[in-house]
Amino acid sequence: MSQDRDPAPADGSLTTSRDGTVLRLTLDRSARRNSLTHPMIEAFVEALTDAATDDSLRVIHIGGAGDDFCAGADWVATNDSGQPRPRTGDLVRRIPHAAHRVIELIHTIHLPVVCSVRGFAVGLGCNLALAADFTVAATDAVFWEPFVTRGFSPDSGASWLLPRLVGMTRAKRMLLLGEKVAATDAADWGLIHRAVNSADLENTTGQLLTRLAAGPTVALGLAKQALHYGQHVTLAQSMTQELFNLELSCRTADFKEGLAAFRERRPPEFRGR
């Protein structure tokens, strides 16, 4: 069972809990479709940064409270805060250490990241789901990048993630036309891992988390790193990186256990070490 989870304050929060070796991060602002405030984004960065160096963790789950996953960054709250207008260049200075940093951490952390989506995943919320290693969505969920329909250009990795996941033509449909994508189409496109009935979402996600948590954590992290590295280098460079990763993974206890299990014709019992 999950432990150490505090109730969300009235204006929402990112709540964290531990379930064995699983870190659960929950966007907890259902009254606003879990749209992210500055404090929630800061908490996200802190939680992921801490998780990156926590050897007791083996997988991360990101979900949303209530009927929706995330309606993106709360621009209304930001612009109605009553604070003086920020000086020119505020977004350029601040966002790399906030929303963009969250996407980078999800993308680069060596722990596998699983996201479960109900309802709407919009803007930054959509990109959180796309940056995860595996996203499972209810069949009635919707993925939407509405940036241009609101008069500003995409951010939080949308222009990098989408073409790599679904190709340039579909990326343009989502980013330039602002088309909404149903979860079933998202799964068919390769935008997400799976679309399942809403009643099956928790169980399907749980099975995936259990499988990843039981895997060779170091090797999984190195494989994730190699996949991302290979997206912007030559084949020769990618294979060189694979060799360095192989050298590291072959020195783990899980590698020895994998060989022993193969010799003994039994399932391996990886410890994440």
UniProtKB/TrEMBL annotation:
Entry similarity comment: Belongs to the enoyl-CoA hydratase/isomerase family.
This protein's name: Enoyl-CoA hydratase
Example of a GO MF term: catalytic activity
Alphabetized PANTHER family for the sequence: EG:BACN32G11.4 PROTEIN, ENOYL-COA HYDRATASE
